[in-house]
Amino acid sequence: xxxxxxxxxxxxxxxxxxxxxxxxxxxxxxxxxxxxxxxxxxxxxxxxxxxxxxxxxxxxxxxxxxxxxxxxxxxxxxxxxxxxxxxxxxxxxxxxxxxxxxxxxxxxxxxxxxxxxxxxxxxxxxxxxxxxxxxxxxxxxxxxxxxxxxxxxxxxxxxxxxxxxxxxxxxxxxxxxxxxxxxxxxxxxxxxxxxxxxxxxxxxxxxxxxxxxxxxxxxxxxxxxxxxxxxxxxxxxxxxxxxxxxxxxxxxxxxxxxxxxxxxxxxxxxxxxxxxxxxxxxxxxxxxxxxxxxxxxxxxxxxxxxxxxxxxxxxxxxxxxxxxxxxxxxxxxxxxxxxxxxxxxxxxxxxxxxxx
Amino acid sequence: xxxxxxxxxxxxxxxxxxxxxxxxxxxxxxxxxxxxxxxxxxxxxxxxxxxxxxxxxxxxxxxxxxxxxxxxxxxxxxxxxxxxxxxxxxxxxxxxxxxxxxxxxxxxxxxxxxxxxxxxxxxxxxxxxxxxxxxxxxxxxxxxxxxxxxxxxxxxxxxxxxxxxxxxxxxxxxxxxxxxxxxxxxxxxxxxxxxxxxxxxxxxxxxxxxxxxxxxxxxxxxxxxxxxxxxxxxxxxxxxxxxxxxxxxxxxxxxxxxxxxxxxxxxxxxxxxxxxxxxxxxxxxxxxxxxxxxxxxxxxxxxxxxxxxxxxxxxxxxxxxxxxxxxxxxxxxxxxxxxxxxxxxxxxxxxxxxxx
Lengths: 356, 356
Known about the structure:
CATH topology of the largest domain in chain A: Sulfite Oxidase, Chain A, domain 2
Cofactor (chains A, B): Mo-molybdopterin
Largest sheet of chain A: 5 strands, mixed
CATH superfamily of the largest domain in chain A: Oxidoreductase, molybdopterin-binding domain
Order of helices and strands of chain A: EEHEEEHEHEHEEHEEEEHEEEEEEEEEEE
Helix content of chain A: under 10%
Protein name (chains A, B): Molybdopterin oxidoreductase
Number of helices of chain A: 6
CATH class of the largest domain in chain A: Alpha Beta
InterPro entries (chains A, B): Ig_E-set, MoCF_OxRdtse_dimer, Mopterin_OxRdtase_euk, OxRdtase_Mopterin-bd_dom, OxRdtase_Mopterin-bd_sf
Strand content of chain A: 35-45%
Radius of gyration of chain A: 21 Å
Number of strands of chain A: 24
Number of domains of chain A: 2
GO molecular function (chains A, B): heme binding; molybdenum ion binding; molybdopterin cofactor binding; sulfite oxidase activity
Strand order of the largest sheet of chain A: 5-4-13-8-9
Distance between the termini of chain A: 33 Å
Shape of chain A: globular
Oligomer: homodimer
Domain Oxidoreductase molybdopterin-binding (chains A, B): 38-211
């Protein structure tokens, strides 16, 4: 484990990089990419076979070597972000369940694999929009005492989207075990949880997965719902992810010498573009326009940004907010989006530093 | 002109319905649909011909009768909303240019016409994604002293989208003159300005329209840019529209009898879904979940919502906010999105009433 990783939970192993390391490269190295495990990390052989079945699909199995041989190999650059990223900001408002993620439960990688759509076509799956594709992982998950294999699903329409991959490589390297080796799903634009790791089975169904992760977890509820009162047939299944931005450098609590400082971070709008990023050096009273550091090709990457500023001595309060290409801005306060499971914190991000 | 329309400008004629009338029906009647003219309303004959030309297109013209005869007739239900809707909320923060729209510069209609894509195919237009389709209207527009025919453009990719129509009817009736008779463009999901009325010419170009409406208007700038300092080659061209919601009934300033009241309004998220609408009866301290009144088929409609509540006597402060299906909420304050032209106010909407 890299020294730049902060462990959020030893078992299951969950960790995120320190913010300054997160933002150093456009593509996040595997050993700095956040790890969100829901159970012990499985150890699967390279010749592991994935079962495929379900509605109008003849039960079969396929190996990674067969996927590579039968289908065109594709590369997609995409952010994966945990639905609980920035949960600590919501925990300032009130207690939530879940690991205390700071701003690092996100990473941007180049994924290599084959289109899920190509496999679905090859096995004769229907493309009817009322169907779901369900994924099972080799990891065993305990959701509120219910132990079952990890399972999630996505709607057939999304499953057929050209950038949804069955991936065996990340930034040109074989997937590390903690990132889903030997084969994982990558669903660009969706919360990380849908990108199932350690795939063991792919099944076409006419209902979403009934596995606890899909059915009783990763849903967004209003603030007046608690874990005790939640009706899991209600709530918003967290798929598409909202606009977000964070300051990665300087880090909160850092001491800096007076003078010039480069403020850096990320912003992400997924299927939309980030149209601008604004940084305040005085707690939100005035705003400056940050510059984009990247000019990504595809639509699923993050945009790193930077602003060069001079900070006077004393305690300084930095804030970032982004706007997307529909002119949509981020809500200011975490209070306005608090939910008991601590999902989807998109409030303006604040960093306090001491300039000496 | 309906007595339920509030004139915002006599010349060019701009008007919006009173909020309570706006929300009575899922489909907004033509005579209650906001009118945003940029010049005098043209009077074109029914046999008016529209020129078609540009890159790799043989110059030609087509009548509405020919469009109906040659291409399949399509119907799309879609909101059109002025980019300046709710400008009055931004004007509470600071002066802006533009007409003082309240919450009524929006309407939801069923549009009938043919796909723009079908016409583009028929005239041999390329579908290259670096091209633009430019539209000219019969209306003469004065933008900061520059008088020219109304002109806008959309990217070829959007122009080819199946729901973009050349429309001659609204809610099953021929287009009224103020809504663009005999033929207008309808670009679902985009600011109303792109849905050019009184079409005279359609042209494929490799640049956006150079008409003043496209080039020097309808762009979103940060708060520190003024009309004097604006660099019109910069700024965000307002196309896709953001999440929004408003309370239409009761209206602001109304007096109500104590007891039960139904609070009603609209919410719109365009290519996303509105996942929930929350109403506060006490200025934003507590929130209740509103019910959706509509279950629209397509993705371009608004969603009307309602909440039955009991209001105590006294001055009461109602607020609405919506969330989309990516969990994205609206920013709370208009201060955080103010811009000199008063575009895209998406702040929580407030209504003050007196309960007697």
